[in-house]
From TrEMBL:
This is Uncharacterized protein. It comes from the Bacteria.
């Protein structure tokens, strides 16, 4: 497992194979769309809580899909194995920190959605 560092290398991509780059580009487009939705809501003084709830709902749906594949639906260690496998873990360059039956911590050093949402928040502060 990766040790938590006080200086994470956020948004410093290290994987650059063709498939990972293609999937990352698609993810970044989706993240940009969500960021634009939030920006446009703010510019029109429309509450963005519906967009944020949609993001949370999307995450919950993914969690429920993963739990449906598990033998023990309360075992975080089993969940962590499903969550951090496959191409998505490469796209975000996930770094598992801790995985046990009681705790699961994973870092997302390359998470375009968070980067774009943070940029949207910075734009909001300037406006």
């Amino acid at each position: 497992m990766t040790q938590i560092s006080s200086e994470p290398a956020h948004n410093a991509a290290t994987l650059n194979d063709e498939v990972t780059l293609a999937l990352r580009a698609i993810t970044e487009k989706r993240a940009a769309t969500i960021g634009y939705l939030l920006d446009e809501s703010r510019q029109r003084h429309i509450a963005d809580d519906s967009v944020r709830e949609a993001i949370r709902r999307y995450g919950r749906d993914i969690g429920h899909q993963l739990r449906a594949q598990m033998r023990d639906r309360k075992d975080l260690q089993e969940f962590s194995g499903l969550f951090t496998r496959g191409l998505e873990s490469q796209v975000y360059e996930m770094e598992p920190v801790s995985a046990s039956r009681d705790e699961f911590i994973v870092l997302f050093p390359l998470l375009s959605l968070c980067q774009l949402l943070a940029a949207a928040g910075a734009r909001r502060q300037r406006n």
